[in-house]
Amino acid sequence: MNRSGALRSTPRALRGVSLLEMMLVIALIAVASLLAAAVLTGGIDGMRLRSQAKEIAAQLRYTRAQAIATGVPQRFVIDPHARRWQAPNDRRGELPAAIGVGFTGARQAQERAGEGGILFFHDGGSTGGRVRLQQGQAAWVIDVGWLTGQVRISRADAVPLS
After folding, report:
1. Which residue in 41, 57, 151, 154 has the fewest CB atoms around it within 10 Å?
2. Are 134 and 126 in contact (CB under 8 A)?
């Protein structure tokens, strides 16, 4: 208001931005962030592959925790050909058909031919093993240390799975 009590008109340049303009800028930033994330992580397929690797690593850690908590050895089983896994307490999962699965581990921990198994003991140790997930040029490995049972996940070079 000015001295006479009337509202003063403010030039357009001094008014600021409207809500619509602010929302448009936020939407553009969100789209740019999604595109940048897709490029940095290998696209949607790369993000799905990483998500599956993190899920298997979480289930391996759960299996180890169950062995320690119950004092009874617990087994994590993975079937690379059927793309299925199973953890204690009837936890199960399937991997998409586009993902290649490989397993390396102790034969003594396998219940059936063609399946991989990692046995965790009451002290946290395990039989050890490696689960490899691959899709296109992206690959992740989940390593389980035999002495400590520690589960580690890392990126890997894409190679043909046998």
Report:
1. 154
2. no
- Phi/psi for 121 (5° steps) reads -105, 170
The long-range contacts involving 91-94, CB below 8 angstroms and separated by at least 24 positions, are 91/59, 91/62, 93/55, 93/56, 93/59
Integer Cα distance of 54 and 47 in angstroms: 10
Q: How far apart are CA 39 and CA 157, in angstroms?
A: 18
Any idea what DSSP says for residue 97?
A: T
Q: What percent of the chain has pLDDT over 90?
A: 66
> What distance in Å separates the CA atoms of residue 156 and residue 46, rounded to the nearest whole number?
12
Whether 95 and 53 have beta carbons less than 8 Å apart is answered as: no
16-26 burial by CB neighbour count: b if 16+ within 10 A, else e? Answer: eeeeeeeeeee
Q: What is the pTM of this model?
A: 0.72
List C-alpha distances in Å: 100 to 8, 42, 114, 119.
69, 16, 15, 23
Q: Which two tokens stand for residue 18?
A: 């409207």
